[in-house]
Amino acid sequence: MDKWLKTGTLKRSASRTEIRTTDLAAMEITVDQQDDNYEVQKPTDWPVQDAVECMFGEDQVQKIKNIPLSNSTVSRRIKDMSIGTETTINERTKKSPFFSIQVDESTDVSYPYILLVIARYFNVNELEENLFLCYSLTKRCTGEDIFNAIQGYLCENEIDLAKCCGVCTDGGKSVSGCYKGLSGRIKIVAPHVTWSHF
Known about the structure:
- This protein is of the alpha/beta class.
- The chain has a domain at 96-197: Nucleotidyltransferase, domain 5 (2-Layer Sandwich).
- The chain has helices at 2-7, 16-34, 47-56, 58-65, 71-95, 143-156, 173-176, 182-189; strands spanning 99-105, 113-123, 126-137, 164-169, 194-197.
- A 5-stranded mixed beta sheet has the order 3-2-1-4-5.
- The longest helix is centred in the middle third of the chain and has 25 residues, at 71-95.
- It is elongated.
- The protein starts with a helix and ends with a strand.
């Protein structure tokens, strides 16, 4: 430990208890990585428990053991958080006087094609930018398919496409075509929209 303090890899302000806690966690992680049958740890197997016991005592370890961490609990919480985030972004986009989108689709050898849409909108007089839509295009990747996916999502979430003031794309034929591309189809619904490409 004194060697680490001299070489500067640990802060001098770290207490011996904090250093011991770091050592316990590092040893536990190293042992876990060497195990060929490595699986998701149960809450009772956490290296955190050793760290909590070292720092705060046995009575605090019991509080750590009460944290539910089954696969289904964690999956459900991740899903709930993603639904909450999506709802927040959609509500902010609805309330904004206008918004713009950046659209990109994968057209490589992978299947299905992935459509990504990033939205910019005002939220309490501040411009925000968030991932708006990530969608699998199961059939083709034409301008019509891209437009239908975006329009369908906006309609499903009651967001008015006419409030779209700008669209940015990569300039590919399926998005930039003025008649059959995404550009032409959006201009029918929102004629004032400005177009740019990256």
